[in-house]
Amino acid sequence: MILRVRDLRVAFPAGTAVDGIGFDLDRGRTLGVVGESGSGKSVSSLAIMGLHREAAVSGSIVFDGEELVGAPASRLRELRGRRIAMIFQDPLSSLHPFYTVGEQIAEAYRLHLRVSRRVARERAVEMLAEVGIPEPRRRAGEHPHRFSGGMRQRVMIAMALSCEPDLLIADEPTTALDVTVQAQILELIRRIQRDRGIAVMMITHDLGVVARVADEVLVMYGGRTVEHAPVREIFRAPRHPYTQGLLASAPRLPAGGAGDSPDPAAGSVAAGGSPDPVAGGVAGPVVKGRLRAIPGSPPSLLAPPPGCRFHPRCARYAAAPDDACVTEAPELRELRELCVLGEVGEVHAGRALRLVGAEGPPAGPVHRTACHLAETRGGSR
Amino acid sequence: MTRYLLRRLAAVAGVLLVICAVTFAVFYVLPSDPAAHACGKTCTPEQVTLVRAQMGLDRPVYEQFGGYVTGIFTGRVLGDGPTALECSVPCFGYSYQNALPVWDLLTDRLPVSVSLALGAAALWLAGGLAVGLVAALRRGTALDRSLMAATLASASAPVYFTAMMLLLILVQRLEWLPYPDYRPISEGPAAWAGNLLLPWMTLASLYAAMYARLTRASMIETMAEPYIRTARAKGLYERTVVTKHGLRSALTPIVTIFGMDLGGLLAGAVITEHVFGLPGVGQLTYDAIFKADQPVVLGVTLLAAFFITLANLGVDLVYAVIDPRVRYA
Amino acid sequence: MTGASPARPAGEPGTAPDAAPDAGPRPAPLLSVRDLRMTFGKRNGVRAVDGVTFDVWPGETLGLVGESGCGKSTTGRMIVRLMEPTGGTVVFAGRDITRLGPRDMRPFRRDIQMIFQDPFASLNPRQTVERIVSGPTRLLDRRGVIELLETVGLGAEHADRYPHEFSGGQAQRIGIARALASRPRLIVCDEPVSALDVSIQAQIVNLLADLQRELDLAYLFIAHDLSVVRHVCDRVAVMYLGRVVEIGSRDAVYNAPAHPYTRALLSAVPVPDPEVELVRERIVLPGDPPSPAAPPPGCSFNPRCAMARDVCRTEAPPLMAHGPGERKVACHFAG
């Protein structure tokens, strides 16, 4: 267990941004943290980095057996960049415009490993080569504005990994990139994780990215965890109405169909103009224009709704209002199937579920959700 | 970089030539009788006739301008015969009221103004940056608020008021400093600096206040940049984050303003020099305007233009060193 | 539709009811773009848009997709005349509007409106919603504004507020209301949902679809998000480095992409389904999109293309009909 977070809270003078989240993360695994703006996903990651300066952080963050909440600032600084590294959304503004990329990579390596300038410089070149930058020696001497968006994100990754960290926090690392470049960067992060066995916390709003890289998913809403489950379960059998809504509202491409075969026969079939349902059952036939939207807007940090923060937008609450949704914050509870969990896809089709109360830390990846109404219906979407 | 430098130097030369033409037009072409203006209020008609000949006003305008410009580089003889005036390189005209070439007057006074400007600049840069930096890092605290209130007061006090207060307190009451009486640096740096300290403080208090506010704003903006977050995420010491990553970026807008301010001051701080009776270019300008000594006013104008364009060039070069993006542009 | 006059009958959004894009023989296109070009800079100019041709029929949505720097936004801006094209023509409702002066352009400015990516940047922060929606020429009275606000899912109570009081999704609704005020026939939507949260994105997509049905609008939908485009468009044009490389019906392009770039683009989009992601074959393109300042010779996609042969490095492929239907592809080896 490299990271163990319990009841993490981050309170700003204006309001509470993160209100009690918890998860475990092992080496070699990827946790996807999904949420919309204001869900508290980035704030949580900055709390783990110890980068909040004007916020009160409480709860527990145990990194490799060491409690970070309340640890002295000097200790957090030692860990940052050395054992916990982070990459950000916009690689251009996240790199200093005045220093060469080689200098910027070497800087942290020199500081943390106390090596000479020459050794650090060599390390920078080596890292640039590892993240796939051609002519690394020459390019190490160039400034960030000479690089393209994808290359800049590679530089950020090289910088983050130079000190061989145990945990990499990636905050929307591909959001600012073009889709073909995004694919390259996700591939790179996955390769590096496989090679080095590091733990990755991938923060994103893009469910597709999560599906591609994550082992486990934490869905956040209004500063709280609404659902936490292995990645296949989140997508196959989402329990929380917000997760269900999010999945239903995301437009998607035909599953598996697109671009996998340059088959001329396929071309002629489709060009015939028939509105054929797309291949693969996940997306279903496309009705032009309509998506299943979640009504309303994400809650404000300043005045979050009482009780369950999602209830003003919740279809399940609208259908069968329950006072508990308005008065009580739902606890994150484990959903454990009575029968042996066979084919995951069948579960939501109506298997009986037993609710188990919160009983300490979960032993393995289990499916937990925070909804008063979770027991009334399965997770069909 | 060399090409960039050459391009910039050519631009500076062009700007100076244009300024030269404009000032020449103002003083030689526009007045109905430039000679009378040049000679001054107390001239007799005979003297004016003589000046007219020496200025070459009977010749075509382009020839006059040509003579003026080439005079700067080669020197010239004004008029001919026994009344001819020798005006050696660089010839910026002749002050009939002082009976000296303008350049001699300027070079006489320049060391005073340069001493004043450089000393004050060092003071205000140090003070302004320090105050601005502290205020930015302690943003929102009582310290920040009181520092900003102090800079506001300091910036709004007129130079003569500040000068009087400093004289009253430091010279008359406490007797810590002598009454300023300019001593060239050749007489010893201690005497030089001791006598200039009061004018330096006066001038610096005005500029330091502005620089403090500017530094604070720029620093606050820079420290909110994502690359500062990256620097912290790398685990750098906060000291390194602030100085190496923050301050260097925050200083770029200040470099621009500093170049302009220093360039302007090198050609004389009129009020400060006047208040303390320092014999600098500012004082010379003040007297020249008072006595309508046009050749001197013309010379000072060109000198100021020269310093400001030169300072601008300096700023651009420093910029190119600081910010690599400029170099490739 | 047939006449050159931009006037329309009695304020009704005017297209014939049989104008559905796939219903039999088509009427004249509402918008015809022919060989549109935009070159920045005089010598060795950057060809941001390099000969783009397409049509938009009344009541349909044409998606214009591509990565940053492919010229899709510039194309949109030239159509609404926020930028002056350096070549080619824009024909709207049968009339060439490419070189019209400001006075002659005025009626067309009402017909062609635009919605922008950043809803806040495109709304004047000092104006109330009522003023923003009614526009500088006071197209609508208060009742008209309120009616329009209700059409886009806002209410009368929002009319006197200022943009900063709204969330991103609401601000985009205001932007849409403003665009609708002049009763346009074509709206150029430049990345209208890419700055919004996923759940809000769906609301705006649905709103645009409802409005299209009710008001018989045509959209030119510019976006980089291929999944969104698939949901809103009838036809899709894929741009790469200032050119259209593939254009056709949505199903044709998405189900059987013919250009290698389209194929790579589609395969790069992550699908929100881990099991699909596990087995899906991905084409990860090497390198970055090249700069329009120095386009590669021949087919501009050739340095990143796995299928590239010698001819691709010397000859730029023209946009040619591919298979039955209306699909066109610019590739020497279109599959």
Automatic annotation (TrEMBL), chain A:
Localization per Swiss-Prot or TrEMBL: Cell membrane
Membrane topology per record: Peripheral membrane protein
Stored InterPro entries: AAA+_ATPase, ABC_Ni/Peptide_Import, ABC_transporter-like_ATP-bd, ABC_transporter-like_CS, Oligopep_ABC_C, P-loop_NTPase
SMART domains: AAA
Residue span of region Disordered: 249-273
Molecular function (Gene Ontology), one example: ATP binding
Skewed-composition ranges (Low complexity): 260-273
Record Pfam families: ABC_tran (PF00005), oligo_HPY (PF08352)
Location of the ABC transporter domain: 3-247
Record Gene3D superfamilies: P-loop containing nucleotide triphosphate hydrolases (3.40.50.300)
Keywords associated with the record: ATP-binding, Cell membrane, Membrane, Nucleotide-binding, Transport
Family: Belongs to the ABC transporter superfamily.
Record's protein name: Dipeptide/oligopeptide/nickel ABC transporter ATP-binding protein
TrEMBL record, chain B:
Membrane-spanning intervals of the chain: 9-30, 114-137, 149-170, 190-210, 254-276, 296-322
The family this protein is said to belong to: Belongs to the binding-protein-dependent transport system permease family.
Domain of life of the native organism: Bacteria
Primary site of residence: membrane
Domain (ABC transmembrane type-1) ranges: 110-319
Listed name of the protein: ABC transporter permease
InterPro entries recorded: BPD_transp_1_N, MetI-like, MetI-like_sf
Cellular localisation: Cell membrane
Keywords: Cell membrane, Membrane, Transmembrane, Transmembrane helix, Transport
Membrane topology: Multi-pass membrane protein
Pfam families: BPD_transp_1, BPD_transp_1_N
Protein biosynthesis listed as a keyword: no
PANTHER family, sorted: DIPEPTIDE TRANSPORT SYSTEM PERMEASE PROTEIN DPPB-RELATED
SUPFAM superfamilies reported in the protein's UniProt record: MetI-like
From TrEMBL, chain C:
InterPro entries in the record: AAA+_ATPase, ABC_transp_ATP-bind, ABC_transporter-like_ATP-bd, ABC_transporter-like_CS, Oligopep_ABC_C, P-loop_NTPase
Low complexity composition bias: residue spans: 9-25
Domain ABC transporter, chain residue ranges per copy: 31-266
Signal peptide boundaries: none
Pfam families: ABC_tran, oligo_HPY
Keywords: ATP-binding, Nucleotide-binding, Transport
Region (Disordered): 1-29
Domain of life from the UniProt record: Bacteria
SUPFAM superfamilies recorded: P-loop containing nucleoside triphosphate hydrolases
Protein family membership: Belongs to the ABC transporter superfamily.
PANTHER family to which the protein is assigned, alphabetical: D,D-DIPEPTIDE TRANSPORT ATP-BINDING PROTEIN DDPF-RELATED, TRANSPORT ATP-BINDING PROTEIN
Protein name: ABC transporter domain-containing protein
Source species: Streptosporangium pseudovulgare
